[in-house]
Amino acid sequence: MISFIIYVVVIGLIAGAVARLVVPGTGGMGIGVTIVLGIVGSLIGGFLGYVLFGKDLSEGAFQMSGLLGSIIGAIIALVIYKAVSGRRVAH
User: Fold this and answer.
1) Model-level pTM?
2) I need a surface site. Which of 16, 21, 38, 86 has the fewest CB within 10 A?
């Protein structure tokens, strides 16, 4: 169980960091937010893999994906987050 948690955190960090490098204007995020972004991306990637390819039917639709799926999912999550949050103007 501990090794799975470490695996999820490491994959989350790598996927989140790559997504932040690919999507412009994502400065100001800490390492914790980057890890969470990667973990959410992994879930999105697993869901997309399930929907598009019908793989791993026994595991269900919400599952963790590998590194490539995590990166793609993290990029999608970051683009959606930026579109929803928009630019906040301080007065």
Assistant:
1) 0.77
2) 86
Round the average pLDDT of the chain to a whole number and report it. 80
Which residue from 6, 41, 11 is spatially nearest to 23, judged by alpha carbons? 41
String of DSSP letters for 25-59: S-TT--HHHHHHHHHHHHHHHHHHHHHHH---GGG
Q: By mean pLDDT, which of 32-41, 47-56, 69-78 is the weakest?
A: 47-56
How far apart are the C-alpha atoms of 76 and 41, rounded to whole Å? 7
**Domain locations in the chain as residue ranges:** 2-85
Say yes or no to pLDDT of 57 above 50: yes
Cα separation, 57 vs 89, in Å, equals 45
Report the candidate in 42, 45, 59, 44 with the shortest Cα–Cα distance to residue 8.
42
CA distance 72 to 45: 6
Nearest to 49 by CA among 24, 78, 23, 69: 69
